[in-house]
Input
Amino acid sequence: MKMIIYRCLSVLLVINMIVIVYFLTLANVRAAWICIALIPAILLLQIFIVRCNKCGCSPGLRLLAIWTLLMDFELYFADTLLLRKCPKCGSNLKENR
Output
């Protein structure tokens, strides 16, 4: 269930980016700033919602750190939507303890 919420948050983040561009084209700066303020909240939820059962690492934090340092947010979205294994230990994230 957490993985479904994790992927839904990724889709929400993409939709939020589209809404920001839409509000900026209409010159509605206040609404755009509200949408921009939602981005850190969505990212924080993604970071802490999924934990690896085997090693205990947070794959969301690792992915965000890697792709932010490389300044490649398109690959961040792709990795979050297709996340199935822990990037640290390689175990399946959907398995229970």
Residues 2-25 form the longest helix (24 residues).
